[in-house]
Amino acid sequence: MATRLKRDRKSSARKTRFHKTTPIPAKHFLSDKVSHFTESVIREMTRQAMLYNAVNLAQGFPDFSAPAEIKHAAKDSIAADVNQYAITWGAKNLRNAIARQMGVWQAITVDPEKEITVCCGSTEAMISTLLAVCNAEDEVVIFEPFYENYGPDSVLSGAKPKFVKLRPPKDDSGEWTFDEKELRRAFDKHTKAIILNTPNNPTGKVFTRAELELIRDLCLEFNVLAITDEIYEHILYDGTQHISMASLDGMRERTVTINGMSKTYSVTGWRVGWAVAPEKITNAIRKVHDFLTVGAPAPLQEAGATALSLPPEYYLKLAEGYRVRRDQLVPALAAAGFRCFQPRGAYYVMTDISKFGFRDDVSFSKYLVEDIGVACVPGSSFYRDPRDGAKQVRFAFCKKPETLDEAARRLGKLARK
Ligand SMILES: Cc1ncc(COP(=O)(O)O)c(C=O)c1O
Q: Are 105 and 233 in contact, with CB atoms under 8 Å apart?
């Protein structure tokens, strides 16, 4: 036996040597799908920020503390041995809290037993939803500029993204708008879903009731599902109001509402998010979710139930804190020569860099991170055609006042080329 084993080893060693010399075509082991997209530019900019010791205004994660109550709740859950798999589609306490809060915030009645899937972040909720609803040949309508995950998400789920432009405001106090006719043209018999992100990353647009009703009417006319990413639901400025698509007449049965803890509770690393959908769609999402990840972190889901029980003042303070940060960064950017598109929600500002005279957004972002010491995200990463974002970059202001001050100080050195 031992000898045979030895002989086997020898022969396999010979084989290994042989195979090592056999050239393997570069794409031999790879799925064609992955050739259709690159790694995240946003996450790459964070790595660049670390490399050049730059102030990271690229990726949207807070550099300040999460609320003490929820950190204690997480520690308590681990100490109480909530350390094994939670129910695949989410811990009961958290699902109950999500259903309760959707009632309070948006007057939407949700059955926590049948209509909620807790996932590893809203990122997983989005890809699980698209995998659960899309077939090859299906088309998904996406407003652009768009949060960069939606492109690869559509490709991975086999669907074809169809982009509709959001146009920047003409003057400084204006809003991002879309053309009704262009949106209508994007809908046809192949359209399975529209992805809608409000409050919006990267533009800061908060879709109005009239705009949502227009989208609703198209969804009803073409029998289309709305998949809404509402992760910035509580980060609103200037009296804007967040309206969930599912709260509109006729939409409850054809909307998947995606949300999560990352932004509202400043815990982007916890990876807890959820999808709320009618029962049949939820069953499909739950199946995909189960085989993708089994479940989100159990102790952090319990802490999530505590987070969703914070008093209403918490949300007012959150929005006001971000309003102050916005009003700190935007004037500093304007003073440095950027044209800023004033955000009405979320915690990003899209800017126009035409004045600096760079070839494109990528060369400008490289200069900014390497020579000025501030990381931003090149605008092209939010568009299908990079040329559309070649004169734009995005800054995140979910940072401490001193971080924003330091960024402003460095941006002061920005010489107009
Ligand atoms: C619009 C949008 N959706 C989803 C996410 C990711 O959310 P999560 O951390 O819940 O996966 C982000 C993060 O920046 C985002 O901007």
A: yes
Nearest to 224 by CA among 128, 156, 124, 139: 139
Alpha carbon distance 106, 246 (integer Å): 9
Q: State the distance from the centre of ligand 1 to the C-alpha of 168, rounded, in angstroms.
A: 22
Q: The dihedral of CA 332, 334, 338, 340: what is its sign?
A: positive
Pocket test for ligand 1, best of 263, 267, 398 (most atoms within 8 A of CB): 263
pLDDT on residue 190: 96
Top-confidence residue, 345 or 22: 345
pLDDT tens-digit profile of 362-408? 999 999 999 999 999 999 999 999 999 999 999 999 999 999 999 99
Q: What is the DSSP string of 315-384?
A: HHHHHHHHHHHHHHHHHHHHHHTPEEE--SBSSEEEEE-GGG--S-HHHHHHHIIIII-EE-EEGGGGSS
Ligand 1 neighbour 203 (Cβ under 6 A): no
- Number of alpha carbons in the 13 Å side-chain half-sphere of residue 153: 25
Could you tell me the two tokens for 45? 């900019």
Q: Which of 312, 355, 274 is nearest to 88 (CA)?
A: 274
Phi/psi of residue 373, nearest 5 degrees: 85, 30
Q: How far apart are CA 125 and CA 98, in angstroms?
A: 14
Q: List the structure tokens of 337.
A: 């020569």
**Residue to mutate (ligand 1; options 123, 144, 274; most atoms within 8 A of CB):** 123
Atom of ligand 1 nearest to the CA of 120: 11
Tell me how far the alpha carbon of residue 353 lies from the centroid of ligand 1, in angstroms.
25
For the CA atoms of 19, 21, 27, 29, what is the dihedral angle to 10 degrees?
20
What pLDDT digit, counting tens, does each position of 87-111 carry? Answer: 999 999 999 999 999 999 999 999 9
- Longest pairwise C-alpha distance within the chain: 82
State the amino acid at position 113 in one-letter form.
Answer: E
Alpha carbons 236 and 319: distance in angstroms, whole number: 6
Burial 49-80 (b: 16+ CB within 10 A, else e): beebebbbbbbbbbeeebbeebeebbeebeee
Residue type at 197? N
- Torsions phi, psi of 349, nearest 5? -130, 125
Asked if 143 contacts 163 with a C-beta cutoff of 8 angstroms, the reply is yes
DSSP 8-class letter at 35: G
